[in-house]
Amino acid sequence: MADSLSLPTDSATSDGVSAVNGTVQGQDVLTIAGRSMHSRLLLGTGGFPSLELLAEAIAASGCELVTVALRRIDPSPAHPRGSLLDVLATAGVQLLPNTAGCHTARDALLTARLAREAFATNWIKLEVIGDEDTLLPDAPELLRAAEELVDEGFVVLPYTTDDPVLARRLADIGCAAVMPLGSPIGSGMGIRNQHNITLIREAVDVPVVLDAGIGTASDAALAMELGCDAVMAASAIARAQDPVAMARAMRAAVEAGRLARGAGRIPRRLYATASTSTEGLPEFGG
Amino acid sequence: MIMLNGQRADVHAGETVVTVLAHLGLDEDARGVAVAVDGEVVPRDAWASFALGEDARVEVLTAMQGG
Question: Is B67 part of a structural domain of the chain?
């Protein structure tokens, strides 16, 4: 913990932060697979109580990339078709289909191919789950699926553990970004191993998007301070008591963390360092 | 027996994916929809020509909130 945030300034600025007088200039954009985005907050659409709240949260979050899942179509009129896609189109956001619920490389591959058909995008948030209780990724299946999808021309953003070696393997085979978890999906436990997130940032040249585990705004700010290029929030916003207010908070936190990362924080010290000079300190005697 | 999204469907072997979609009130222009038959993607431009086998398992999928 102690030194994880006290990286030297040159390291902090080498990943594209342009901080001048505390203001990030206009050119600070997140680029994934050649697509530039001004927002460094990705939003998951799952869990929102209504499409109206989802639309409001998207607007409040400023996000440009949102996840959607692929499921069996419900022919009942209670689920009007296309309404989710209409909301997302109106919001002007890019879709990031996911393979949520897939437990094997085979299922994830088929889901990715179907998502490409349905949504006319070759971007895929690749999730291959290895355990129903923790929803932790299945590393071997994830790697196999990622490799195949990269070969098929997909822009692959894999949801991965916070293992720096696995993240590097995913980047090496051509993934467009890596999305390490802070803690299990929906747990709200924040970033349980800050050192690993720091190591992942050092280990790969592709964008690092902190995914899963974000509970509140400070978690998102911390992710950015650790050097992540973006943060993905889903449950933290959708299941907050006031999702729209939390979307606004997450947006501010991501921006604050990014600025702080670029600004270069002071090192942690055990003892105090006076901020006021002792020079000219009077001696009052007595 | 042809299965549509996990349920027995009133569709017969030799009929096409377009017929199946019609059962769901969808036409060939349906947006945000993808079809798999027996674990393989059926591309949109093949919907009208793809004839189903006797025990075809058809999945018709669309966008849902998630992730």
Answer: no
Long-range CB contacts (within 8 A, 24+) of A10-18: A12/A227, A12/A261, A12/A262, A12/A264, A13/A262, A13/A264, A15/A201, A15/A227, A15/A229, A17/A258, A17/A261, A17/A262, A18/A262
Residue B23: give the domain boundaries.
Answer: 3-62
Cβ neighbours of A46 in B, within 8 Å: 65-67
Compute the residue count for chain B.
67
Q: From the candidates A40, A116, A125, A251, which is the catalytic residue?
A: A125
Residue A76 confidence class, pLDDT cut points 50, 70, 90: low
Q: What is the pLDDT of residues A174-223, one digit of tens each?
A: 999 999 999 999 999 999 999 999 999 999 999 999 999 999 999 999 99
Q: In chain B, what residues touch A114 (CB-CB under 8 Å)?
A: 34-36, 41, 59, 61
Domain count, chain B: 1
CA angle A11, A232, A50 (to 5 degrees): 160
Mean pLDDT (chain A, rounded): 90
Is B9 a domain residue?
yes
Is the Cβ of B3 closer than 8 Å to some Cβ of chain A?
Answer: no
CA distance A179 to chain B (A): 12
Contact A117 B44 (CB under 8 A): yes
Look at strands B57-65 and B33-37 and give their pairing. Answer: antiparallel
The ipTM value here is 0.93
* CA R_g for chain B: 11
Report the pLDDT value the prediction gives residue A261, as an integer from 0 to 100: 96
